[in-house]
Each structure stands twice: as structure tokens, then as C-alpha cells.
Amino acid sequence: QVQLVESGGGLVQAGGSLRLSCAASGSIFSINAMRWFRQAPGKQRELVAVIGGSGTTNYVDSVKGRFTISRDNAKNTVYLQMNSLKPEDTAVYYCNADIRISSVTYQYTTYWGQGTQVTVSS
To answer: How confident is the model at residue 105, as a pLDDT?
Structure first.
């Protein structure tokens, strides 16, 4: 089995910073893309940032220049550094990852973490 566990959420004032972590564990052969999503109350879940297996990154326009996604392949961990936080960044943040669990099959399965709350006060 594979698990993704997020950490690093919390309450911060506007203009502050937080760093989220998401560690994958279990039967992992390789990890391709890793992503951060967020879901605010009453809104749809949105993709915030993605990092490919080669390290290429992409961001939703609303966080460009403020958020940075990175990964540590040795630790099977993805990070989201969030700077200059705004009240509208308040949401539950989820990570997901495309994981291959076997050297025999080339199939990648997408796994999700349980989410971590980020609250930005004005």
C-alpha cells in the first residue's frame, strides 16, 4: 500500500509564509508527477502547482511568484513553499502523486493525501 501524508499547515497572518510537505511511503518503485491542490469552502478543488518527474514546474496564475513547488526524490517528498500569503489562499491543501509500485508493470496510479488546513488571517 502507498500513503501520502501532508504536514506543515496552520494559521498565519497575511504576508506570512508556510512550507507544506507531503511524504509518500509504502511500496514505491518510482514517482512521476507530484501536485498540490487546494479546496476552499464552497469551491471546487483546484490545481495549484505541479512538478514533473524531471523537475519541470507549473503553477496556477494566482500563486505565480509567491509559491514554489519542489521535490526530494530520495525522500519521496514534495514541498510547497508559500510566501506572501493572502486570505484567499485559505483552503485545505492536498497533495497527489502518480506512483508506480512495481518494476514489472509500467502502470502509474494516482494517490492522494488526506489534506492539511491552511488559514490566512487578514
So the answer is: 84
